[in-house]
């Protein structure tokens, strides 16, 4: 398997495997349980299931499109990161530039996603994470975790930096 110096160890496990699976999962959930169920889960409720006819056609379409966006993000991360690893195995500077550009876009999306999710919660639930359901924790708690791991990656925590944080990109000895 080609070297992936830009995503070593824990970062590789998290961003190459776990994040794509967790990002594609909402699309699968929508396909399996339906748009009404997923929509109902976005805001924690004491009702276990949505009432019949809960969503109009426009809302169902919007939830299906949201699921497609989740799937797209997961596929881009999974397939693009693997392409970077396979196409540039001996060029960690280029790997890091591409992964870093993607992480920048994802970090911005993390922040705006958390803000939208948090603001959209009813005021009595915003500061009561113990009353949140799995979907709410996924949208807020897990997304904040991913954002913090992206920031740790940019800071070079637990990895060698080749481009970000360097006054000049490092020259890599290709004889090893």
Automatic annotation (TrEMBL):
Residues covered by the DUF7704 domain: 5-158
Keywords, sorted A to Z: Membrane, Transmembrane, Transmembrane helix
Sequence intervals crossing the membrane: 21-40, 60-81, 102-120, 140-158
Source species, domain of life: Eukaryota
Name assigned to this protein: DUF7704 domain-containing protein
């Amino acid at each position: 398997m080609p070297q992936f110096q830009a995503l070593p160890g824990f970062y590789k496990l998290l961003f190459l495997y776990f994040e794509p699976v967790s990002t594609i999962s909402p699309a699968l959930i929508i396909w399996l349980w339906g748009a009404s169920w997923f929509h109902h889960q976005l805001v924690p409720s004491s009702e276990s299931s949505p009432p019949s006819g809960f969503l109009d056609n426009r809302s169902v379409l919007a939830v299906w499109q949201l699921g497609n966006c989740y799937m797209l993000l997961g596929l881009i991360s999974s397939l693009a990161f693997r392409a970077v690893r396979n196409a540039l195995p001996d060029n960690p500077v280029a790997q890091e530039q591409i992964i870093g550009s993607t992480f920048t876009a994802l970090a911005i999306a993390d922040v705006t996603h958390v803000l939208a999710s948090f603001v959209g919660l009813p005021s009595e639930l915003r500061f009561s994470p113990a009353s949140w359901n799995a979907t709410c924790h996924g949208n807020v708690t897990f997304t904040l975790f991913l954002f913090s791991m992206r920031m740790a990656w940019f800071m070079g925590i637990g990895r060698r930096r080749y481009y970000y944080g360097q006054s000049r990109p490092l020259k890599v000895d290709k004889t090893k």
